[in-house]
User: Fold this.
Amino acid sequence: MKAILVRQFGGPEVLKLEEIPTPDPAAGQVLVKIHAAGVNPADTYARTGNYAVLPPLPYTPGTDGAGVVESVGDGVKKVKAGDRVYVAKSLSGTYAEHALALESQVHRLPENISFCQGAGVFIPYGTAYHAIHHQAKAHGGETVLVHGASGGVGIAAVQMARAMGLTVFGTASTEKGRGLVKREGAHRTFDHSQPGCKEEIMKATGGRGVDIILEMLANVNLGADLKLLAQMGRVIVIGSRGDVTITPRDLMARRASVRAFTLWAISEAEAADIHASIIAGLENGTLRPVVGSELPLPNAAQAHIEVMKPAGAFGKIVLIP
Ligand code: NAP
Assistant:
């Protein structure tokens, strides 16, 4: 099969298309024919070799993907050949024509969700769900600021929070991005590239502040975020790419908190909650993954450059084998 292989850590140019043997599923494993693979910022961090979780070289990147089960190993009961699935982590990587996964890593993809959309399910929606439910413990009637709403995680969070009855504020740096965020459910949108953005957000709450901030770029925003919080407010750090200074008294004055997580560390019980809830939301139309661009698999390097562009996110970037 054709697969992207990384033989040494480095820039996007280390992503090379190669011909490698198609794996055979052993007991408890599933072979999925990948129709689309999701590109996530974390794929680029791992590729550079400077990340907390690194695969042994050589490896095929990709955590997210969607396709059809081709064959299953002994004892697999959850899926059978021909089933449509999305992949949430795998043994062999999803930037390939096939991915080998554990039975527990494949999940039913509802009929109304395309393979390209399915490639944008696990990391974006799993992260948004974990942040909103398990970390923020959000309630209907609260106000959430999705700080960085135009990308994969942000769009997922906007759709979820709106469906739960929160007042949703979302930010994006382009008009196109803000249009998407509004269309997907935000009550108000703001431009995080503008100097007056924080004041506008505070004004939109009538000076009360927001209850929850889902933060995609904490190294830039965390200090200012704390000043935007209402009493008992919480910031959930989802993304960060460096260091930041905060004023602890901003937390003290509001009895506020900052929480953070990586999706890699969720418990089995949290994962079960996440997948059951996501599948229900996909089926009933509450969750609608937005695919911004589709690139052929050999263009993986271009996809890595695009996903790290500092502005202009528009849903998901997916690779088509
Ligand atoms: P993405 O699709 O590339 O989207 C990035 C988002 O960040 C866009 O909405 C972008 O908006 C926004 N952004 C850019 N500059 C910003 C600023 N100054 N302030 C606020 N937002 C800004 O990425 P993603 O998949 O949604 O992931 C978002 C972040 O979360 C990444 O850093 C990723 O590594 C991280 N993440 C963490 C976990 C975890 O387990 N903790 C899981 C998934 C993702 P514009 O392009 O419109 O400017």
About this structure: The chain has a mean pLDDT of 98. Residues 40-42, 123-124, 127, 147-154, 171-174, 177, 192, 216-217, 220-221, 238-239, 261-263, 307, 311-313 surround NAP (CB under 6 Å). The longest strand covers residues 29-39. The radius of gyration is 20 Å.
